[in-house]
Structure formats: C-alpha cells, structure tokens
Specification:
Elements lengths: L1 H22 L25 H10 L16 H6 L27 H6 L14 H11 L28 H7 L14 H12 L13 H14 L4 H14 L3 E4 L8 E6 L24 E6 L11 E4 L1 H12 L13 H5 L1 H4 L5 H10 L1 H9 L7 H4 L5 E6 L6 H4 L1 H7 L14 H31 L19 E6 L2 E6 L9 E4 L1 H13 L7 H23 L7 H8 L3 H10 L18 H9 L27 H5 L16 E8 L2 E10 L21 E6 L8 E6 L3 H9 L4 H11 E2 L6 H15 L20 H12 L1
Parallel strand pairs: 1-4, 5-8, 9-12
Antiparallel strand pairs: 2-3, 5-6, 6-7, 9-10, 10-11, 12-13
Helix pairs in contact: 1-28, 2-7, 5-7, 14-19, 18-20, 19-20
C-alpha cells in the first residue's frame, strides 16, 4: 500500500508537471558556456569552419528534430534558417506542409514564403547566430554539476525559436538561452572560428567536390538501367525506387565518404535535376519523369545514414533476380495511395521469389530503414517492440507466398495497410486494418501452414534462411532503447525474451507501414494508425517464431510476453487463438526449446556468426579473457541486474590504456509486462527484471551518456555499478566515471567517441546526435519518498 501510495503521488506530480509544461515556453534551442565575456571575433580561414560546425553545431542541428528546424549540416540549411513550425506534433489534426531540405523548396525566397526566417547576417546588424553565440559565452553554470533545474533539455520541449527582431526579449526571458544548448563551454578556438564565421555573414564553406570519371560512369550505368523504356523495366525500376528512396547509395569501390540519392526528376540525365517533391514514393509523379542519382551534399548524420551498395555487381544481381525469370506484364499499375497500401498487389506481376530475395539480400539495410530516416524522435513509434530481440527469416523455399501462387492471390484482399484506406471514415479504417484484416489473415495463414505441416511434418531448422552460406544478414539483433532503436548483424546479448521469424508478406508490409507509407508530417491519426498496425505485424513475427517450437509450449510462452488483464482482453478482441495443435518438425533435446532453437540457428552456418557472445552469453573458453576490459565487463551482464534500471538507455564506455582506446556500448534492456499499448508505458515496466547488454564498439545514433576510465579502473567501475541500489548510488558512479554535459571534458569526449565510430567503419559511420544526452539529477522529494518506500517494502 505504501508503494502504491508513493507511486500514485509520483505519477500525479509528473502528470501535473507535464500539463504545466504544455503552457510554458522552454529554454529554447541553444545553450550557454560558462566563461567570461569573450572578445569580438577574430579572422579565421573559412576552410576550417565546416569541421567545427559539424562537431559543435550539427550534433544537435542535423535531423528533423533539430530545434526550430534549423539544420546546420549544409549551406542550404543555414541559409534557409529556422521556423516556429514543428515537425513532430502529436496533436495536429491536419497534415503539415512538408519542409524537407533540398526537396520542398530550393531557394531562400521560397523558404521565406513557407515561414522560415533568417539566422545568418541580415541588414539589421548582428545575425541570430552571432547573438546567440555571444549570449552563450556570457552565461555561467557550474562545471561538472547538474544543469540548473530551469533548463529543459527534453527532445520534446517546446522551443521558442526567436526571429531576428525577437532575440533581445528571448534572451531576457531565457537566461540560459545562448548557443550551444546546455553544454560545457566550447573550446576557445572553436568559439572564435564560429563567431568569426557568423560575423562574416555565415558564408558557404568549401566547394562541392567533382565526381571522378569512373564514378560518373557507374552513375550513368545505374541511371540507364533505371530508365530503360520497357514495361517490365519500368515496373522493376518503380519497385526498386520505392525501396531505395531513403538510401545513401555508395558506388561500389568508391571513396567511403561519397554517397548519392535516387530521385524522380522532371529532367533527364545530363541536365540539372528537378526533383519531384511527392509526399510518399508511390505518389503519382504527375507526368513523365526520369530516375536520377544525385550527390548527397552536407554532413552525413548517423541517424539518417542507411547505406546501400550499387554499381556493376548490383545491376548484374538485379538482372538475375528480376529479368532472368519468365514473367509477363500487360499494363503498368497506377500510382495511388491504394497502390502504396497494398504493394503485394501493386507488384504482383514481379515473381514473389524475386521480390523476397531482393529484401533478403540486404535485410540489414531494410530493417535499418524501419529505424533510421525521418523518425528522429519516436518513443511512441518504437515502444511497439521489445527492448532487444532476435530476428531470422523464413527460407524462400519454405514460404508459401513464394512457392504457392494461390497463397498471395487469396491473401492480398485482406493485407491492406492503413494508408490505403486514408479517405474512408476512421471507424471503417480501424475495423478494416486493425480487426477484420489481421484476424482473417491470421486464420488464413495458420490454416495454410497447418496443411503444409500435415504433408511435410512441420517447420524445421532448414526452413530458416541460412544466408545462402555467405550472407550475415540472415541473423539480426534489434535494440529498442526508449526513444530510438538500432539493428546489427548476428545474435547479440543473452537469450532474449522474444524473437521474430519474418516471411515475405510480413517483411514487405513492415516496410510500407514504417517507411514508404509513413509521413513524418502526417496528422495524429496517421501516426496513431501506423503504430497500431505495427502492433499487429509484431505479433505476426512472434507467432511465426512460435510455430517452430513445441505446440504444447506456445500458449505459455506467448502469455509470458503479454502479461496483464488488459493485454489478455486485447488478445481476445483482436487476435486469433495460438495454434497449439500443429506440430513442429523439430525434435527438441532439452526442456528449454526457445533457447535451444535460437542457439541452434547460430550453428547452421557457423562461419557467418559467432556462436556465443563473449561478454553476455558464453561459457568456458568462449568467454572474454578475465584480464581484459571485455572480460571484466561481463560482471554487468547478470540476469536480472538490479542495478540496470538506474543506467542510461544507451551509454558509451571508453577504456583508455596508455595510447590505446577501446569503446563499448552499454545498452539498457528494459523489461515490460507487455508492449501491447501505446501509452502509459511506465505502468507496464518491470524494472527489477532489467538487464544490461555490453557490446564492443558502437551502434546507436544517440549516445545518452559517456563513461571514461583507465583500464585499471574497470574492475572498480564494475563493482560500483553492481552496487547501485538508489539514485544516490548512481550519482556517485557518475561523479567518479561519468562525463556530464557540463564536464570540461565534454566536447573532447564527444570527439573521442565520434573518432572511434569513424574508425569502426568508414562507410557506415555518420555524425552522432547529442540531443538526448542525459543530465542525471538527484531525486526530488516525492521521488525520494517513492524510492524509500519501494526499498523498504
């Protein structure tokens, strides 16, 4: 009772604070440093500006969630300026106008008409950027300590976004409103470089590099392939475009930092491109167009960096996949929302095996498109999945949608996505794609695979795609860390709570729900229905995994994923019963079928993936050497870990040993009774069951915190973290090993982990985002009461 009372007070206080926050203006998009007044800017060569902009400005002003939509990753961005309009708005009833840089307007006057105002030098004197840089230098707060309580650093804060004539009032109301926002002071050289650049009118820095001849030749070959004028070629090109429009295309063998985008242009190859600014890739282009590859200018951000290799080898693969098979096409399908809402129907003429193998060839890329891209902030978007789970894929030869032409023909009518029904009444849409469609398809699929099992004895290990013996994309680990997500190859961490098996219809629908059909500028209904439909798709992947396990164990395992009376009621309402009669084709040798199955998958092609995880899941010689940092960090991977609930969602640990450094990612895997609902996630948390997964290297776009230590300090760090039982204990660890936003080493540490990421993989690396870097604070009185009563009970 005491726990419930304290918990109720805490929730009430938080709710009141949240409601109050709706009516308050936050501290705005920029921050302060804590040194004395600086002199006026000195002359600095502009050649050195871009690197400083990247390291000190673009780390917050790069993605769609850049405060005030001020993107400093390219001259086009800072010349466009800022706006008071929000990209992320969970309350809007109408779709917002799209404001994609480089797409929805191409000149400064066009951006001014869309409500963007200048932040660079104007006729009225010092620019917004210059004034905010100076304001940041004048303000002070205590180095190495928590930020003042009045500073709201939440990515969801409502920014003030002062226009040029509003800066004085803004700074009067927000004493910590300078730039950069809520961090330690910039190094003097960086400050002087930025101030000189701002005072000089913020000119463009550097010239666009010329594309070498051999790269231009490859680009021409790709454009020729995409613009081939036959019916089959046009349909294949459309299919490829709708799946690659977000890609950062890397020409095979080219410089690791040069990338291209695939666009639809009014103008043909050889002329300046004129991109068609459609809201979605399957929208009607409104006349003739050409597919073009255009260079990506500006800074590459990790959150948006989804790399896809293309060139001569890839075109040969397309030839084998799409044109070697015999198929006919009489007419091209139309462009429409219905087409994007049912891609299985739109592209039915292309053999299902070709389409599925195309997705499997680069499964990591396509799963990354679910995660990266325009959804720069999305706690509601990603709380549809567990915090860490493993994914494998149904082999094409075992997939009825590939092997049996009647399967998709019969299933297509009930596989529509939300966007296809956007013009109907909401009640009809909800009924169609949340109830009728999923229930019908669950029943249909279950019956067809039961028939298949009656003939061949049920699903076996050979029915899981093995990567054709060469492709590491066949095993993936997906991390969800509160408001962001990541995916890597292989099975990382301990045996997860859940796992998915994905087949072709599921893969395609997830892509069109979360990527091709998702509109970040869409209204609340669009974003809600997208998330709710994804709830159905998650369950579909989990059910497919269950079909490989003993029939008499499926219900119990499923119930352990969906605990709670509301989750049970939801199952009765929108789910068909779990198949507990169709046998699996696997003869299990232990009483832990889930663990046995997942572990066995790693041995099917053992040279592709490690069979164990040397830090989180190992035994004997397979474990990391106890004398190494990795071996010592094994002490944090206990299950469950009572200290885990205090740790950041994703932190980077840097171990320094003489002149050598090693980076690890510590992922906080949060436990939930279920992930069946959009809201009130905290009510379904099971923090005592939380775990930590420790991984060599980095995978997250958003580091929430950095720990730094010497190699000899790692054992004490592990001991101290394991001893955490309160926020006070956690703050003691922060004081000893953590890098706060106000730490004098903050910018140096950000540079360090960025350098480590760049060295990890030059092609895949991108600029990290620090918008979600934590500011650990002591508990307030109500939280202390909650902590005391919870610990006492």
């Amino acid at each position: 009772m005491r726990w419930l009372f304290a918990h109720g007070i805490l929730r009430g206080a938080r709710l009141a604070a949240a409601m109050l926050g709706i009516f308050l203006v936050s501290a705005g998009p920029w921050a302060v440093s804590n040194t004395a007044d600086a002199s006026e800017a000195v002359s600095v060569p502009h050649a050195s500006v871009q690197d400083t902009l990247n390291k000190r400005c673009v780390v917050c002003h790069g993605c769609y969630d850049a405060p005030c939509q001020l993107k400093l990753s390219s001259p086009e961005g800072w010349q466009r300026g800022a706006t008071k309009a929000r990209v992320y708005d969970s309350k809007r009833l109408e779709d917002a106008p799209t404001t994609r840089l480089g797409i929805d307007a191409t000149t400064v006057p066009e951006w001014r008409q869309k409500g963007f105002f200048p932040v660079t030098a104007d006729q009225g004197g010092a620019s917004v950027l210059e004034q905010l840089l100076k304001a940041g230098r004048r303000q002070t707060f205590e180095l190495g300590k928590a930020l003042p309580d009045e500073l709201n650093i939440s990515p969801l804060r409502r920014n003030s976004c002062p226009a040029p004539g509003e800066i004085e009032d803004y700074l009067s109301d927000h004493r910590y409103g300078g730039m950069p926002f809520a961090t330690a002071p910039l190094p003097e050289a960086d400050f002087q470089t930025l101030l000189a650049w701002a005072a000089d009118g913020s000119p463009a820095v550097g010239d666009t590099a010329e594309v070498p001849g051999h790269v231009a030749d490859s680009v021409n070959k790709v454009e020729t392939f995409f613009n081939t004028d036959t019916l089959r070629s046009k349909l294949v090109a459309r299919y490829l475009y709708e799946h690659l429009f977000l890609a950062h295309l890397h020409i095979e063998g080219d410089d690791p930092r040069r990338f291209f985008r695939l666009i639809r242009s009014r103008t043909p190859p050889g002329e300046p491109h004129e991109e068609i600014p459609s809201r979605r890739p399957f929208d009607d282009p409104g006349g003739s167009f050409f597919y073009r590859l255009i260079p990506i200018d500006g800074t590459i951000l990790h959150k948006e960096h989804i790399v896809y290799e293309i060139g001569t080898d890839r075109l040969a693969r397309y030839q084998d996949l799409f044109f070697a098979p015999d198929w006919d096409l009489e007419n091209l399908p139309p462009y429409s929302k219905e087409a994007g809402g049912n891609p299985l129907s739109t592209f039915r003429a292309i053999p299902a095996r070709s389409r599925y193998q195309f997705l499997l060839d680069d499964a990591l890329f396509f799963v990354r498109t679910f995660i990266r891209g325009p959804v720069c902030y999305g706690q509601v978007a990603v709380n549809v999945i567990q915090d860490r789970f493993w994914v494998s894929f149904l082999d094409p030869d075992a997939d009825l949608s590939v092997t049996d032409p009647s399967f998709l023909a019969d299933a297509i009518p009930v596989l529509e996505l939300p966007v296809a029904l956007s013009d109907d009444k909401m009640s009809e849409r909800l009924k169609s794609f949340l109830l009728v469609g999923p229930l019908k398809y669950q029943t249909f699929r279950q019956e067809r695979y039961a028939r298949k099992a009656a003939k061949d004895g049920g699903l076996t290990y050979s029915d899981i795609w093995d990567g054709d013996g060469t492709n590491t994309n066949a095993r993936l680990t997906i991390y969800r860390n509160f408001s962001s997500a990541s995916v890597v190859t292989g099975f990382e961490g301990a045996i997860p709570k859940t796992a998915w098996v994905i087949d072709f219809p599921l893969f395609e629908r997830i892509y069109y729900d979360l990527v091709a059909g998702f509109d970040v500028f869409g209204n609340v209904e669009h974003q809600l229905t997208t998330r709710m439909y994804m709830d159905n798709l998650r369950r579909e992947g989990e059910r497919m995994f269950l079909y490989f396990l003993p029939a008499n164990r499926r219900d119990a395992l499923h119930d352990s994923w969906y605990k709670g009376p509301l989750a049970s009621l939801l199952d009765l309402w929108k789910e068909s019963p779990i198949d507990d009669t169709t046998p699996t084709g696997i003869r299990f040798l232990t009483d832990r079928p889930k663990t046995e199955f997942l572990t066995r998958l790693l041995t099917i092609a053992p040279r592709l993936w490690p069979q164990s995880d040397p830090i989180n899941r190992c035994a004997g010689d397979a474990c990391a050497d106890t004398a190494s940092a990795a071996g010592q960090l094994r002490g944090l991977s206990q299950q469950p870990a009572p200290w885990a609930k205090f740790m950041p969602d994703v932190s980077v640990l840097v171990v320094e040993d003489g002149g050598k450094r090693q980076a690890f990612t510590i992922a906080h895997d949060m436990a939930h009774s279920n992930v069946a609902f959009i809201f009130n996630e905290d009510l379904r948390r099971e923090p005592e069951q939380d775990e930590l997964t420790i991984v060599k290297g980095q995978f997250s776009s958003y580091p929430n915190f950095i720990f730094r230590m010497k190699a000899e300090e790692v054992p004490d760090f592990v001991t101290n973290v394991r001893a955490i039982r309160s926020q006070r204990d956690y703050l003691n660890v922060i004081a000893a090993y953590g890098i706060r936003r106000t730490d004098p080493r903050f910018w140096e540490s950000i540079d360090l982990i960025q350098s480590e990421l760049n060295d990890q993989d030059a092609v895949q690396a991108g600029l990290l985002d620090i918008n979600r870097y934590n500011d650990p604070k002591p508990l307030d009185p109500i939280e202390r009461l909650f902590e005391f009563t919870f610990s006492f009970d």
